[in-house]
From TrEMBL:
UniProt KW Mitochondrion keyword: no
Gene field: yjiM
Presence of keyword Iron-sulfur: yes
Protein name: 2-hydroxyacyl-CoA dehydratase
Co-factor(s): [4Fe-4S] cluster
Record InterPro entries: FldB/FldC_alpha/beta, YjiM-like
High-level lineage: Bacteria, Bacillati, Bacillota, Clostridia, Eubacteriales
Keyword terms of this UniProt record: Iron, Iron-sulfur, Metal-binding
Domain of life according to the entry: Bacteria
A Gene Ontology molecular function term of the record: iron-sulfur cluster binding
Entry similarity comment: Belongs to the FldB/FldC dehydratase alpha/beta subunit family.
Length: 383
């Protein structure tokens, strides 16, 4: 039996608050002369900046607070994630943007690519060219881009990134990923041990933990505690089991997750970017460290890939593993790539897996909360 130091709600709250709590940590790191690299996307091979001792921070992009400022420069009918991140950079309201020595973007969707061009007017920006295909040619190209990125870091920060340091970071990132996978897969139990919102918040919050070395142990401790309480009979009770997929859905878009769980269901699997989509392992046995990173990162099933078979394969597998009763696809307004893919995802879920599927299109405002609650209540009721 695990010794309980804190109760579960307290631990979940700590992870949920991790982003805010890291503001001070990043300031301290900065004062100690640690370089800070700001990331936009899970395609960033964060092992490289970490291998030169930099802190890698996720840039703020999940609130509507800075959208009015962004709309002075960007079109209104643009994805809220793009407007939000540009707005945070422009207004310096995000401490992670403020402290970043370098902001790294990838050539993912069109809106983001064009936004980076404008961002470069007031922030040091480096853009990694991401191939659109997960073919061998695509992997070879991404491998070259990863090396180019390493050389750029070495040049800008006047340092050398050794292969040994990269291998250390690959191993550490694998340990973090394994602990997050273990935590997520506890939700494959039926009944589910805890609410999906807690798991989503923990996975999202863990990305802002500046003490990266201790992160696997912290998450494994949490998983131990959940397992112990589950064995003692604590759980969510029998509920309809939902898988959530689609555009990144942290922060303001969590309103959909809340609406699903308030309607009496439990979100057992979260396939979006702060969830399972990006929980991939890098092959530590691969003698070519850059090839290993290229394969791992290009394996992410984002809708900016064309075609994007990895997302469909992952959904197919997760629906079985998590005993899913229904799928909710969250689309951020004006996110064309995820929106177009709803046709393929809907076909897989309804025709191949034989379970209900629904699409929720939303933005970062709270004006549609009531409507989303009504729709999710109706969806859950039919399961
Ligand atoms: S790997 S999902 S974090 S690109 S910005 S595509 S919501 S229109 S964010 Fe993403 Fe990397 Fe892919 Fe993940 Fe749509 Fe908006 Fe574009 Fe977006």
């Amino acid at each position: 039996m695990v010794e309980l130091k804190k109760d579960l709600p307290e631990i979940f709250e700590e992870f949920a608050d991790q982003r805010r709590n890291s503001f001070l940590a990043i300031k301290k790191l900065k004062e100690q002369g640690v370089p800070v690299v700001g990331a936009f996307c899970t395609y960033l091979p964060k092992e490289l900046p970490r291998a030169m001792g930099a802190a890698v921070v996720g840039l703020c992009s999940v609130s509507d607070e800075t959208i009015p400022d962004a709309e002075k420069d960007l079109p209104r009918n643009l994805c809220p994630l793009i407007k939000s991140s540009y707005g945070f950079a422009k207004t310096d309201k995000c401490p992670f943007f403020y402290f970043s020595d370098l902001v790294v973007g990838e050539t993912t969707c069109d809106g983001k690519k064009k936004m980076y061009e404008m961002l470069a007017d007031f922030k040091p920006v480096y853009v990694i060219e991401l191939p659109n295909r997960q073919s061998e040619e695509g992997i070879a190209m991404y491998r070259r881009e990863i090396i180019r990125f390493k050389e750029e870091l070495e040049r800008r920060f006047e340092t050398t990134i050794t292969e040994e340091a990269i291998r250390h970071e690959i191993h550490l990132n694998n340990e973090i990923t394994k602990s997050l996978l273990r935590l997520q897969y506890l939700m494959a139990n039926d009944p589910a041990p805890v609410s999906g919102l807690n798991i989503v918040n923990t996975a999202y919050g863990s990305g802002f933990n500046m003490d990266v070395e201790s992160l696997p142990a912290r998450i494994n401790d949490l998983a131990d505690q959940i397992e112990a309480e589950y064995a003692a009979g604590k759980n969510e009770g029998k509920k309809p089991r939902i898988l959530v997929t689609g555009s990144p859905s942290g922060g303001a878009a969590l309103k959909v997750i809340r609406a699903i769980e308030d309607a009496g269901a439990v979100v057992v699997a979260f396939e979006n970017c702060s969830g399972l989509k990006s929980m991939l392992l890098t092959d530590e046995e691969n003698p070519d460290v850059y090839d290993a990173l290229a394969r791992r990162y290009l394996g992410i099933g984002c809708s900016c890939m064309s075609p994007n078979p990895n997302r469909l394969a992952m959904l197919d597998k997760l629906i079985d593993e998590f005993h899913v009763d229904g799928v909710v696809d969250i689309i951020l307004q004006a996110c064309h790539t995820y929106n177009v893919e709803t046709a393929l995802v809907g076909k897989l879920v309804k025709e191949k897996k034989g379970i209900p599927y629904t699409v929720v299109e939303t933005d970062y405002s709270q004006s549609d909360v009531g409507q989303i609650q009504t729709r999710m209540a109706a969806f859950v009721e039919m399961l």
